[in-house]
């Protein structure tokens, strides 16, 4: 054989770390053919067999099937193409494993029942199109009858989760919880009523998202009072409530409140309606999914404001 050094199966096993049985199998299937045989019929292999076996071992450890490996070794397909295909397949497997891990972590954290675990698993596996349909259905129910409202498009965008193609485990877990929350009929009804009432409050020339305007005004005006320890029924709270009422009057399209007790009562009702822990939870989960900064908890300022307004409404 032109002086080429030949190796026995035992030699190949020692050089490659594969077992004799495995090498014999690869030889029998033609992936690593023998270069020659001894007079006694024992197979001998050239240096190219070592290279083939080392490549084969690496590809097998990467999870590539023997049929594809044969094509690579025989140069029927390029190694680059095979690597690209299998890298994509692994990406899919990784995403699936991360989804499963997120569901199992949620089951442990929440102490879920088998039925709840099954639902979480189904929600985690939804395709992008299926997720979009689920959220469209939710927002359609919340804003039913308000599609012609000038703020409809902006508000729905601000409430739409967009799970990344390669989400982190906490984003998957947040998506599952948000999806479950979106199916809560009581929550849908509450948000629908809130949206309807806030749309009624909107002044004719106000084309912005009213819920955010009111929430931001309350946060800006009331947070300093909370930090300073001002009681809702104290004299120090008076200018804060006056400013909040004036802002709400502008939202309603009034230059100044004409019936202060009625305005206070209406605003207190709106703020109490907004003070739903499920709403805050939805916004917190939304921020995790979309990679937004965590929203501040509005509950303290909403509770303070509603109480401060009610204490200033004369009792009948």
Structure described in brief:
This protein has helices at residues 9-16, 20-28, 47-61, 66-73, 79-110, 114-124, 128-142, 152-158, 169-182, 185-201, 210-228, 238-251, 260-274, 277-290, 299-310, and strands at residues 36-37, 43-44. It is mainly alpha-helical and 316 residues long.
Mean pLDDT, to the nearest integer, reads 86
End-to-end Cα distance, whole Å, is 113 Å
Major sheet characteristics: 2 strands, antiparallel
- The number of helical segments is 15
Reading the helices and strands in chain order gives HHEEHHHHHHHHHHHHH
Number of domains: 2
Strand % is under 5%
Please estimate the helix content: 55-70%
Helix-and-strand structural type: mainly alpha
Description:
By secondary structure, the protein is mostly helical. The chain folds into two domains: 9-77, Multidrug-efflux Transporter Regulator, Chain: A, Domain 2, CATH 1.10.1660; 126-310, no CATH class. It is 66% helix and 1% strand. It is built from 15 helices and two strands. The chain has helices at 9-16, 20-28, 47-61, 66-73, 79-110, 114-124, 128-142, 152-158, 169-182, 185-201, 210-228, 238-251, 260-274, 277-290, 299-310; strands at residues 36-37, 43-44. Strands 1-2 form a two-stranded antiparallel sheet. Strand 1 and strand 2 form a beta hairpin. Helix 5 packs across helix 9 (169-182). The longest helix has 32 residues, at 79-110. It is rod-shaped, with a radius of gyration of 33 Å. The termini are far apart. Residues 203-211 have low confidence and may be disordered.
């Amino acid at each position: 054989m032109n002086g080429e050094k030949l190796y026995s199966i035992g030699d190949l096993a020692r050089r490659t770390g594969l077992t004799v049985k495995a090498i014999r199998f690869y030889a029998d299937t033609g992936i690593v053919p023998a270069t020659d045989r001894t007079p006694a019929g024992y197979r001998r292999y050239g240096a190219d067999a070592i290279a083939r076996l080392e490549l084969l071992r690496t590809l097998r450890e990467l999870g590539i099937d023997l049929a594809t490996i044969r094509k690579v070794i025989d140069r029927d397909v390029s190694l680059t193409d095979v690597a690209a295909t299998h890298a994509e397949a692994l990406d899919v497997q990784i995403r699936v494993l991360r989804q499963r891990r997120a569901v199992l972590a949620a089951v442990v954290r929440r102490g879920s029942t088998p039925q709840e675990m099954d639902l979480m698993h189904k929600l985690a596996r939804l395709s992008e199109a299926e997720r979009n349909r689920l959220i469209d259905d939710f927002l359609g129910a919340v804003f039913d009858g308000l599609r012609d409202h000038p703020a409809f498009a902006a508000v729905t965008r601000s409430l739409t989760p967009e799970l990344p193609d390669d989400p982190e485990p906490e984003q998957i877990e947040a998506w599952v919880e948000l999806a479950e929350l979106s199916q809560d009929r009581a929550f849908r009804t509450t948000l629908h009523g809130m949206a309807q009432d806030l749309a009624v409050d909107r002044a004719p020339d106000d084309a912005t998202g009213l819920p955010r305007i009111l929430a931001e005004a309350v946060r800006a005006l009331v947070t300093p009072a909370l930090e300073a320890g001002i009681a809702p029924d104290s004299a120090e709270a008076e200018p804060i409530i006056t400013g909040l009422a004036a802002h709400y009057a502008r939202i309603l399209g009034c230059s100044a409140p004409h019936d202060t007790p009625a305005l206070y009562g209406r605003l207190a009702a709106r703020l109490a309606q907004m003070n739903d822990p499920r709403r805050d939870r939805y916004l917190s989960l939304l921020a995790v999914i979309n990679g937004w900064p965590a929203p501040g908890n509005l509950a303290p300022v909403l509770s303070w404001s509603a109480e401060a307004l009610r204490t200033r409404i004369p009792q009948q």
